[in-house]
């Protein structure tokens, strides 16, 4: 059975005191039975948030990383540095990284390989733009992004990956994809993995939905057979809101 997972992507928000307080408050509001929870703060917050997360049984994730271990790469953070801070997960290929910083499918693949080399589980983000959706290119875009990111990987590693379907047009817009659309894309992702590796590997991959997820629609997404959780942006910034979302997800996931 795939363990449900809810990941909080704080993006460029919170100071250290706010971040630690969030984790403490959120942990106190969570139900006893809960999905795996990953908190992904900015790089400057990883040490403090990680220490607090470990006290409450939550996982620590980073929002990005470079593929080299060390070198003359001003402003970058390596997987070795993340591992030193006991980071469990790393978001790779988020649409904001692709759109604002020009990350390519090839670079995403390099980062995926580097994460596995340092025993960090990737949360691979894939998704189409509004223009691609309107041109009926969603499945072609998803196929290219997933197949390129996973090319040449060990099946045992692929079985542990988390793939987040985040339609670019839904991120921060308040417009979430329908559950049917998200489930259809998730099913396609699983098919891509099965064709590239095996059906057994595909069954083990956890697939999340991301894009204007909130406590009002999380139950619907958790009911989709192919979805195993959510990558949450704006709704993860306030402790009570995020805890409510997680508790709602748990009610559905553990029925």
Task: Explain this structure.
- The protein is an alpha/beta fold and 255 residues long.
- The chain has one domain: Alpha-Beta Barrel (TIM Barrel).
- 46% of the residues lie in helices and 15% in strands.
- The protein has twelve helices and eight strands.
- The protein has helices spanning 16-29, 46-56, 79-84, 95-101, 105-117, 130-134, 138-150, 155-158, 179-196, 199-204, 218-223, 239-253, and strands spanning 5-9, 36-40, 59-62, 89-92, 121-126, 162-165, 206-210, 229-232.
- An eight-stranded parallel β-barrel has the order 1-2-3-4-5-6-7-8, surrounded by five helices.
- α3 links the parallel β3 (59-62) and β4.
- α1 (16-29) runs parallel beside α12 and α7 packs across α9.
- The longest helix has 18 residues, at 179-196.
- It starts with a strand and ends with a helix.
- The relative contact order is 0.15.
């Amino acid at each position: 059975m795939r363990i449900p997972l809810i990941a909080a992507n704080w993006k460029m928000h919170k100071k250290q005191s706010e971040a630690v307080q969030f984790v403490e408050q959120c942990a106190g509001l969570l139900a006893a039975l809960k999905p795996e929870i990953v908190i992904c703060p900015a790089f400057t917050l990883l040490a403090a948030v990680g220490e607090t997360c470990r006290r409450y049984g939550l996982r620590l994730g980073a929002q990005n990383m470079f593929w080299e271990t060390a070198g003359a790469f001003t402003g970058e953070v390596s997987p070795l540095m993340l591992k030193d801070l006991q980071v469990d997960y790393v978001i790779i290929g988020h649409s904001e990284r692709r759109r604002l910083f020009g990350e390519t499918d090839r670079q995403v693949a390099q980062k995926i390989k580097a994460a596995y080399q340092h025993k960090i589980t990737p949360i691979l983000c894939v998704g189409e733009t509004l223009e691609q959706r309107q041109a009926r290119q969603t499945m072609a875009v998803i196929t290219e992004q997933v197949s390129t990111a996973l090319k040449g990987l060990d099946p045992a590693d692929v079985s542990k990956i988390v793939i987040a379907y985040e339609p670019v047009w839904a991120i921060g817009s308040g417009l979430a994809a329908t559950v049917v659309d998200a489930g259809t894309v998730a099913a396609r992702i699983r098919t891509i993995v099965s064709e590239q590796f095996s059906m057994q590997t595909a069954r083990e991959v956890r697939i999340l939905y991301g894009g204007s997820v909130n406590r009002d629609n999380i139950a619907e997404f958790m009911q989709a057979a192919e979805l195993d959780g959510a990558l949450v942006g704006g709704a993860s910034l306030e402790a009570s809101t995020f805890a409510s979302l997680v508790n709602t997800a748990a009610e559905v996931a553990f029925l």
